[in-house]
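Quick log. Single chain, no ligands specified.
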Amino acid sequence: MYRNWIPAAVAAAALFVPAAGDSAPQTAPQNVGEPVVSGQTVQGETLSTTNGRWTGSAPLTFRYRWLRCDTSGGGANGVNCATIPGETRRTLVLRSADVGHRIRSRVIASNADGTDSANSNATPGVVQASSSAGRPVSSKPPTISGTPQQNETLTANPGTWSGGKPQTYTYQWRRCDSSGGSCADISGATASTYVLKDVDIGRTLRVRVTAHNSLGARAATSTPTGVVTKAGVASGNTISINEVSLPNRLVIDRVQFSPFILHSRRPFTARFRVSDLQNHPVQGALVFVVGIPFGNTTTPPEQATGADGYVTFVIRPTSRLRLSRGSQPFFVRARKPSDRLIAGVSTRRLVNLSIR
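-> predicted structure:
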């Protein structure tokens, strides 16, 4: 008669169901560690912000604002700072309007229970980019002097750099294909000079120079040398395109833009030299050049190289060419008239014109 009896305490515990209000309480975000801004406060440099540290029920989402403050930092917690319109990412590129001001970030945290915000401390004042401030900036690329021939010595000139002084330079020589592309660092070749070896024959070289100062470092790379020839092989005597046949090939080994940095949409000239693998300039090679993407520039039709192996094009930028800092690529092809466009002894090369 006692087989189905259940103690009263056990029955009561089994019937108790917690109410929804008895779960862990949900809380709105609250900042417990302010955001931190990092980066150099120099015009043109990029600042970034952390989220800071927050309590509150997960998940938290974050939004960002940037504040431009006076030289005092905008007062307590930036109450007198002005929001910079449109700047809603975690990073901020410093512009001319920021020069002379201090910058704060504002991080806004949200969850289902509310929203809170926190400001970073103010940065130091933003200074203008100039020859006396900021990380190094290349204003004239490195150059290479010397004869591109086996056992000869090449010498790197670091080029011209602005930015805070003093500056030091490091070097890395790179071995490229005959068109100056597909480059790879040469192990151990980190001096300002380089002695050409057997493995360099038929290739071109570039040098990458890195400038260092107390604020950071930047790198710039030279244009390629001419194709390296075997020691004792005479070069410089022009040959006819009809004398070039496989396994010999054409090489576009000299590129000259005038001006070498584009500042406007005025017409400019591009000069290319075509040679063979023995470094002989080639007369009568057909050269074609076109800007990439199509429509940024207008270029003349295919032209033949002259007695010095050179051909010159007048290139006209269109309104589609953006004049923002960067480069405009060009595809260049040289071929033998009797060959198909990309067959036989033909060669192709991508070159870039700097835009500032």
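The mean pLDDT is 87.
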